[in-house]
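Supplementary Methods. Inverse-folding protocol.

Structures were first reduced to a discrete structure-token string of length 142. This string, shown here, constituted the complete conditioning input.
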């Protein structure tokens, strides 16, 4: 996981962070989520609307859906974005994004995108998208 110290090195011109493999990113995301039983919103208004549209209204429902996604996604489900498509908005700027298409038994095909922030061993899961796959295609048309 990328530490805050690594980001400081990037700003100082020293070698910057590298993207984790898909398997490592999934493992880090699972550990971060399960350690705290929660996640942060990368774009609160957008992700909130996506959860509402899926009928995930309560914290318990949302946490359950995210836990299911993290339990079921694997490296072959990754669809990008690929570097250098990192977050550019603070406070998560410079963090690599990891996007997957997850086939939920109850929700259908879900586009699930996240980043990790914090220091190694104390990462936080930051959710940037959680919506039906078709919506991702619609976003690309605009």
């Amino acid at each position: 996981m990328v530490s805050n110290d690594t980001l400081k090195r990037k700003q100082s011109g020293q070698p910057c962070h590298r993207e984790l493999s898909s398997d490592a990113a999934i493992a880090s995301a699972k550990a971060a989520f399960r350690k705290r039983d929660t996640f942060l919103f990368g774009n609160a208004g957008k992700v909130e609307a996506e959860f509402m549209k899926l009928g995930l209204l309560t914290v318990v429902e949302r946490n359950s859906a995210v836990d299911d996604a993290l339990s079921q996604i694997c490296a072959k489900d990754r669809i990008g974005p690929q570097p250098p498509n990192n977050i550019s908005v603070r406070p998560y700027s410079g963090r690599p994004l990891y996007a997957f298409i997850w086939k939920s038994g109850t929700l259908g095909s879900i586009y699930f995108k996240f980043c990790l922030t914090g220091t190694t061993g104390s990462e936080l899961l930051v959710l940037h998208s959680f919506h039906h796959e078709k919506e991702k295609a619609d976003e690309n048309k605009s």
